[in-house]
Amino acid sequence: MFKWLHPYAKPETVYHLCGRLMPWLMGAALLLLLLGNIWGLAFTPPDYQQGDSYRIIHLHVPAAIMSMGTYSAMAIAAFIALVWQVKVAQWSVLAIAPIGAVYTAIALITGMAWGKPMWGTWWVWDARLTSELILLFLYLGVIALSGAFSDRQTGAKVASLLAVVGVINLPIIHFSVEWWNTLHQGASITKFAKPSIDPSMLWPLLISILAFKILMLALLCVRLRTAILVNEQHRPWVKAMAGD
Amino acid sequence: MQPRRQKRLFAILLVIGLLTGAVAAMLYALQQNIDLFYTPSQLVDGLGKDKIKPQVGQRLRIGGMVVAGSVKRDPESLKVSFDLVDTGPLVTVIYEGILPDLFREGQGIVAQGVLQDATTIKASEVLAKHDEEYMPPEVAEALKGIKHVPPSQQQPASGSY
């Protein structure tokens, strides 16, 4: 069933695939990021209650959604790395973790900057904010664990196990605003209901979300290529490319 | 699937399953402690199956809607008092300090303070809660009848309202 996937377990194939995709992904990400953010930050109408302060949503929501999306991608890679022991999947886990950590940090920092003028506080220990902070610690834990063993293989395995186990946090983040009383409001965009955000504000937001997603893939390509070269540096195909 | 891979697959699924169970049990046990605030009906009727009511003098957070017409300001100082409601009973909050910009009648707020008697809280901090609806002022006026006044044209608030 998955025979067509087998060539992609070979580092050399992935290296060249990433090289071909990267410029397109990077170009699309930068274009959409500029479009979505300039439209959202400068050309949408102000909110009826929050005025111009709500505009930070165009950074906060894409970063928050993709902090969770990036985590699921990392967990799937970690699962494949643990069960099928595919080397490329193993390297992807470590390539993807810092990207997700930065997205989570952006979500937390923009959220704090939004919370101060609107709620009246930078931080409150409600379920949504706390579970998102735990997500940041999970990312940092994966990065730290992978470097904590003198044997790089062991470190990568333990980090992958943490990445897989941490998936439990994702539904907690998502449903925290429904399961418990929180200061954080509910979701504005859900799959099944009509979005509770006006269409004039929704479109730039959706573009920004897509931009963050493509940017994640582009950065993953860059980091994965480097990881493949480092790990395969003694292989003939790398040496041939380097010209010795 | 190779038996070795199958073994690893089941081992990992077992670990995930057990941990999910453990976390679910923890969250279930801590249910009431994870809530950020009491609602007015929880404060008056008690919380959970055992109907546990907070004691006078206890520090707690209360969250609800500011009742229209209940905001009383002291013209001489920053003292203010207002009523909160969710579905039934009213709870009075007294506070001295600057209220957040989003504070207004009908708005959801969360106040932290000390319970003075069964339905009065002396708050040390008042936070505004906003909902997940975002729309331009014209749309809000058409849909909800909320007239938006730009800050430059607002009348200065005088005395109590």
Automatic annotation (TrEMBL), chain A:
Q: Which GO terms describe its biological process?
A: cytochrome complex assembly
Any one GO CC term of this protein is:
plasma membrane
Ranges where the Cytochrome c assembly protein domain occurs: 7-184
List, alphabetically, the InterPro entries matched: Cyt_c_assembly, Cyt_c_biogenesis_CcmC, Cyt_c_biogenesis_CcsA/CcmC
- Membrane-spanning intervals of the chain: 21-43, 63-84, 91-113, 133-149, 161-181, 201-222
Membrane topology label: Multi-pass membrane protein
Coiled-coil ranges from the UniProt annotation: none
Predominant subcellular localization, coarse grouping: membrane
Keyword tags: Cell inner membrane, Cell membrane, Cytochrome c-type biogenesis, Membrane, Transmembrane, Transmembrane helix, Transport
| Taxonomic superkingdom | Bacteria
- State its location(s): Cell inner membrane; Membrane
Cite a single GO MF annotation. Answer: heme transmembrane transporter activity
Q: Which family does it belong to?
A: Belongs to the CcmC/CycZ/HelC family.
Q: What does this protein do?
A: Required for the export of heme to the periplasm for the biogenesis of c-type cytochromes.
- The protein's name in its UniProt record: Heme exporter protein C
Q: Which organism is it from?
A: Rheinheimera pacifica
Automatic annotation (TrEMBL), chain B:
Q: Which GO terms describe its biological process?
A: cytochrome complex assembly; protein-heme linkage
**Topological domains, Extracellular:** 30-161
Q: Which domain of life is it from?
A: Bacteria
| InterPro entries cross-referenced by the UniProt entry | CcmE, CcmE-like_sf, NA-bd_OB-fold
Using the UniProt record, give the first listed, main subcellular location.
membrane
Q: Name one GO cellular component term.
A: plasma membrane
Cytoplasmic membrane side: 1-8
GO terms for molecular function, please? heme binding; metal ion binding
Q: Name one Pfam family in it.
A: CcmE
State its location(s): Cell inner membrane; Cell membrane
Q: Could you say which residues bind heme here?
A: 130, 134
Keywords of the record, alphabetical order, are:
Cell inner membrane, Cell membrane, Cytochrome c-type biogenesis, Heme, Iron, Membrane, Metal-binding, Signal-anchor, Transmembrane, Transmembrane helix
The record's comment on protein family reads: Belongs to the CcmE/CycJ family.
Which named protein is this? Cytochrome c-type biogenesis protein CcmE
Instruction: Give the organism the record lists.
Output: Rheinheimera pacifica
What gene name does this entry carry?
ccmE
